[in-house]
Amino acid sequence: NLRKFYKGKKYKPLDLRPKTTRARRRRLNKYEESLKTKKQQRKESLYPVRKFA
């Protein structure tokens, strides 16, 4: 079965890819969107959300 063969591979034939618009296929996935740089993590830890004022 082709679906089983291509499962987990980086590239798949066009007819086995999810049917969405071209732009949505190229969008970052949830995991990639949520990644933060070391610098951003540092800034967030230095200036946490204020609990008063």
UniProtKB/TrEMBL annotation:
<dbReference type="InterPro" id="IPR045059">
    <property type="entry name" value="Ribosomal_uL29_euk"/>
</dbReference>
<comment type="similarity">
    <text>Belongs to the universal ribosomal protein uL29 family.</text>
</comment>
<keyword id="KW-0689">Ribosomal protein</keyword>
<dbReference type="GO" id="GO:0022625">
    <property type="term" value="C:cytosolic large ribosomal subunit"/>
</dbReference>
<keyword id="KW-0687">Ribonucleoprotein</keyword>
<dbReference type="GO" id="GO:0003735">
    <property type="term" value="F:structural constituent of ribosome"/>
</dbReference>
<protein>
    <recommendedName>
        <fullName>Large ribosomal subunit protein uL29</fullName>
    </recommendedName>
</protein>
<feature type="region of interest" description="Disordered">
    <location>
        <begin position="17"/>
        <end position="53"/>
    </location>
</feature>
<dbReference type="GO" id="GO:0003729">
    <property type="term" value="F:mRNA binding"/>
</dbReference>
<dbReference type="GO" id="GO:0000463">
    <property type="term" value="P:maturation of LSU-rRNA from tricistronic rRNA transcript (SSU-rRNA, 5.8S rRNA, LSU-rRNA)"/>
</dbReference>
<feature type="compositionally biased region" description="Basic residues">
    <location>
        <begin position="19"/>
        <end position="28"/>
    </location>
</feature>
